[in-house]
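Quick start: what a row looks like.
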Amino acid sequence: MVYLWIACMSVFGALCRYSISLALHAPLYTIIVNLIGAFALGFSTTYFRRLSWSSHIKTGITTGFLGSFTTFSALSKDVADLYLAHHYLSLFIYYSISIPGGMICAVIGMKWGDRN
């Protein structure tokens, strides 16, 4: 049953990410999606502890929806594209925002989820 939840929620996460990619160009959309996803995963990790929802639903949201919404592979491809295009300043800015920004958003989400 957990696989069904993950599969169904993955569809929605991927569709949300794709919708954002239509509105914004890479690498901007990847940064935004990954920061939102880092916050949402941090928040849900702590907040879900207090909910009596099925572990299948929680896993569907975190692994399924958020796992397909955010993607490290897109970040890696964006970095490679910037490198190959010799856009070193953009690469530095993108990477400098993505990695620490994701960690900061995850910590803020966990603290906020713990508080609510």
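That is the whole record. Residues 2-114 form one domain. The chain has one domain: 2-114.
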